[in-house]
Amino acid sequence: MALLQADHLTVYVAFHFVLITLLSFTSATPGRGSANVLSLPQPYDFLYYTGVRSYFGEEWVKAAELLEKAILTKESLSRVRRQCHEECVEAGREAFNRLDSEKGSLHDLWTLDWVQQRAECLRFCVGRSVSPAAQLPVSTDIDYEFGSRNPYNFLQVTYYKLEKLQKAASAAHTYFVANPSHLEMRNNIEKYRRMKGVMEEAFQDRELENENHWVLYDSAVQYEASSDWLKAAEKWKECVNETLRQTDECRLQCEMASQRLPEDRGEDGSKSVYEQAADLSLSLLSCRQSCVTQVATRPGRISSQEDFLPTQLEHRHIAQFKAGDVGGAVQTLRSLLLFYPSDHDSLDNLQLYSETLGGDTESQGTQPAQEIVGYINRALDEKKLLYFGMENLDFSFTDPDLWTPEDVVPESLRDNWRAVKENINVRMVEGEKKEEVDDSGFYAGGPVPQMGVTIAMDDTVLNGTNRVVLDDVMTEKECEKILQLATAATSAGDGYRGRRSPHTPHETFEGLTVLRAVKLAQDDMVNQTDARLFYELGERVKVLLHSYFRSPSILYTSFTHLVCRSAIAGDQEGRLDLSHPVHVDNCLLEPETNQCWREPPAFIHRDLSAFLYLNDNFDGGDLFFTNRDAKTVTARVKPSCGRLVGFSSGPVNPHGVSAVTRGRRCALALWFTKEKLYRDMEREEAAAMWAAGGQSVVKNEEEEKEGGAPPARNARNQASRQGRGRVTGARDEL
Fold this sequence. Notes:
Layout: H1 8-28, H2 44-56, H3 60-87, H4 93-97, H5 104-127, H6 140-147, H7 150-161, H8 165-178, H9 183-193, H10 208-225, H11 229-256, H12 273-295, H13 308-322, H14 326-339, H15 344-357, H16 361-364, H17 370-392, H18 414-434, E1 454-457, H19 459-462, E2 467-471, H20 476-491, E3 499-500, E4 507-513, H21 514-522, H22 528-548, E5 556-567, E6 580-583, E7 588-590, E8 595-597, E9 608-613, E10 618-620, E11 623-626, E12 633-637, E13 644-648, E14 655-657, E15 660-673, H23 681-692
Antiparallel strand pairs: 1-2, 2-13, 3-4, 4-5, 5-15, 6-14, 7-8, 9-13, 9-15, 10-15, 11-12, 11-14
Helix pairs in contact: 1-5, 1-12, 2-3, 3-5, 3-7, 3-11, 7-8, 8-9, 10-11, 11-12, 11-13, 12-17, 13-14, 14-15, 20-22, 21-22, 21-23
């Protein structure tokens, strides 16, 4: 075992890894504990299963009590382990310190003395608060249930049945954070928001303490998107620190949790004490290393984010530099270089920062942050022992890091290690190609502030970024009124009447603007109420999308257009074209190169696009999204009365409309902009015409408070509750 024979210090480090595992096994073995009353007498898995049985038996009070107690017991067990770990750090310290001066049998005796004192301290500490049964390991099924936050799924319905709506909303929100694609729960949350007695503070993540680094991560990304580099740098600092804290907490739980004895695989049917100790120590080290993956996995996700900590450091040094803190950027960049010492981009940035500092030699000589130095050194020591175990003790280990230096890996394992690393890199590159970044500043997932409106499809279902389909935005009666308006305007000689579509010779195209509708209404050629509804629908859509996409700034309506496309009878056979070819709303799409040029004649000021459908009594006419190649369809949306499709107008959302082969398809097309200069002046003229006639209208952008809604605190934050409603029960959807 050449790795451990260099000198006494190396031996003691190895002993530390081996013996600390023995400690974790000993301390977690149920014992008598103290004579004090146990605060955790029942295992949390038993409480959970009993609570679920009560739930299905519709014993709502009992179910709520047991499910809450299961959650609290699990939290308390982790807290006890943490406290006991801190309390027993010094136990046996005197014996451990004497290891450097002892040799031979005395060395072994002092080692055992240290182990026993530490084990006795931990066993007594845990035992005085936790019963022997509550210290036993739980099944993987229970790990999954709590990892997916399923207890809160049961609790939200339980509290609803008990008419404790504030608690029901809190449970629903907590479950949804880890299950963001659960549309029924999202709709439940919106219903809770409208209920009397449900306050905004109810919509808090009860598991936030364990996931706060993701809150900080999302907040930092949002500050970057709005170019607030000072706040972004501050948030990235907090995110790095919280990630390190969460990693340490995970590692501590590895040490304190129950450890199963390794399987006996000796040739003669048994293993020596040292072999078993080595197996246990390697299991502990592997658990500690897996904390990298655990902390880097967002709630509700299966896969972790590769290079999570280095990625944060990369974001942070850029934010620091742009905020003017060049000295801080140098330190963060040097910390990043500990992970990837030869990265060309990082080295180029370091040279740039040094040139920017000029004669500031003190800042140029800034060393990496000590907490990152310690993180790297500890990780490398553990990896060396684990790879030694792989090579010599048949231990299985999956390295969670891409940055691991090749010289840490034994020669006999390097070929396989390189192949695994290459596969990961290939998957990451392919993922980057598939998942584009939307720099629009919108963040899907905000609240829907209109009673009765439900989310039919979100980013996950639509396979994209910043896309949503909302249903029941209009009533059937409202759809009929706008369809009548379209027919009346066409008959009145609008000037848009029945001309050939600019996109296909197989359809006719009819359109109406808000101002034209108002003028026709004043001339009594269309119904005044219908014209006002046309105007107000634009405001309704803007409010919904401003809230759902969490726009950090005010939105101005750029253009509103009532459009009807009609199939030309007898001209549809063999048709292969589209009603509207694939395009991007604010840039010129070039499918051959996957480029999108944001320049005229594109409507470069458009930021958010929407279609509000009025009918479905036609064939074809589906909206579809594609990749930038304009060929690979990623999602389809079928129109129906009151269905609203909203999406960011940039290159992440190429879209088109399939051919209308029978009937007449009508919809409101709307575009919104963040730039006041490009607001729709016709809407203001229409509002002025109504005002001149003594009629009030929905408040327009000029009357809105500048600044719009405040930026959300994180990617899952919800805004204030509006309205009220009524729900009916089911497990997942109210």
